[in-house]
Input
Amino acid sequence: MVGGGPHGLLHALALARAHIDVTLLDVRRPTPTATPRAMTFHWSMMKGLDELGILDDALARGLVHRIWSLNVLDGGERMFFDLDVLADDVEYPFTLHLPQESLSEIVVGRLQEMSNVHLAWDTRLTGLDQDDRGVTVRAASPDGDQVFRGGWVVGADGPKSAVRRAVGLGLPGITWPERFVAANVRYDFAALGYEVSAIQLDQRDGALVAQIDATGLWRYTYAENVTLPEETVGERMREVFGRVLPTGDEPEVQAWAAHRMHQRVADTFRVGRVLLLGDAAHVTNPTSGYGLAGGFFDSVSLVEALSAVVHDGASDEIVDRYSVVRRRVFTEITSPVSSDSKQLLWNSDGPGRLEAELERLRRATSTRDRQRQYLIVGCGLESPSLRSPSVTPQ
Ligand SMILES: Cc1cc2nc3c(=O)[nH]c(=O)nc-3n(C[C@H](O)[C@H](O)[C@H](O)COP(=O)(O)OP(=O)(O)OC[C@H]3O[C@@H](n4cnc5c(N)ncnc54)[C@H](O)[C@@H]3O)c2cc1C
Output
């Protein structure tokens, strides 16, 4: 494994539990950070986290929520989705808010106890070569140059993946003309009628608002045109809060981070014995919270494929299926759904468009059955077993 971000760590744990020996290298070591990072673990992942044996620990540290609100800034209208409408469809109809580094801490704790896992921190992949039987990875560490050899290499080393570049793949797609700004703030959004997870709808000030923890820390995520200077984000943030909060209220901004938004996917997730998963394979804007879930289900499929090859002597055609099937989930579900959400939140196409979207959402939230129809699309992030006859590799 190359990359010890959330996807690399979770994949290493899943492989090790499937009795496959793993060496994981990361140029850093997982350390707590105040910089805002991922925090929403989509409901579709809960069963998988339970199967990995880490759900209880994650729930103990995080915030669970079942209801999310849509708060229209102008006029104060509110709509709600209740995940309980999925109770007949999924075992765990709730979403978890937990800073990604807290999940990483739990997973690293488990990996350290496993005899078939070797963790190599402060170790940067610098190149790789492959032949019919395996892959040789070259890396640099404080102890000097290192060489690792394995049957397969999985690149979970993020959007700028060195693994992906080493096998000659790019990450084609689009970059949106806005940057998103994620701010951790101390402010009681609940007092304004926001659920633990909320979408603030407004022509100008659309935002994702989510409570991070029980101490009263919230995440406020908004967008601005990328041509505005990044050095002055802080000044404009004060103007944003001045517009959206009651007069005189000033949240304490603990930290913020600004990022570009993309819809991009590699042409294939497999080149010989080198595989890609998570953001190394595909990146999406964050508005649907599909970033972590997409990579998580890549991992579920890839563990199935590699177990079939390593333990059952299956043809490596199943690994091609992994690439085709998971790429298709990204292009047909993750990316279009996330793009729609992004346009809903951060597209100033004129008031007519927002009003039409609000009408659509009023209808979608109007009955439990319609809520279910709207939400159930998230089940499509998981793909069926790669051995299932319904899974066609084309
Ligand atoms: C502010 C923010 C908020 C977000 N919020 C959410 C959210 O709430 N929910 C959600 O689903 N998604 C969210 N996302 C998206 C989510 O963070 C990503 O999808 C996720 O982090 C991708 O994980 P990853 O493990 O694939 O890659 P990364 O997190 O990028 O990890 C890659 C790892 O590879 C290592 N690495 C890189 N190059 C090398 C090398 N050459 N050698 C060795 N190691 C290397 C890096 O050190 C890093 O640890 C958010 C993103 C941002 C920026």
